[in-house]
Amino acid sequence: ILLQNFPFCIMSVNITRIVLQALREECLSRECNRRQQVIAVLNDVYAAAFLQLYRVWKSQHKTIADSGFLLKELELSAKKKPKQLLKSLEAYVSRSPVADGIQRLSPPSGSSSISAGRAGEEINFTGVCDLQVELEGEPRLV
């Protein structure tokens, strides 16, 4: 089984840059004006961009070597099609697991999950503090 790591922190910094750049270049102005909000729009675009990146990363088995290309694609989406990004996030969040008749499994111990989304698709994250490291032969929490 191939473990497919996702560089959450690095991607988070890059997505923050992309969203702020889209705001500075006035690519998000229409949505900000429509909602009469800026921070909420930035948050939603950030979440939508992260969701898109994560889905592509997992479904196409991407690695860190692919990240430059993926981030460029994501930047184009955020600048040229922000409304489409936001609609995909809205669709993801609005799908009810109860309506689909699927119960979610509990996330592994020590991890958190985003479960408000598509049925059967749960995103689990393990925090750095949850990882065990062997130091001088004894496992301990970092």
Automatic annotation (TrEMBL):
Pfam family, one: ELMO_CED12
Record-linked InterPro entries: ELMO_dom, ELMO_domain-containing
Ranges of residues in domain ELMO: 1-82
Protein name as annotated: ELMO domain-containing protein
Organism the protein comes from: Anas platyrhynchos platyrhynchos
Lineage: Eukaryota, Metazoa, Chordata, Craniata, Vertebrata
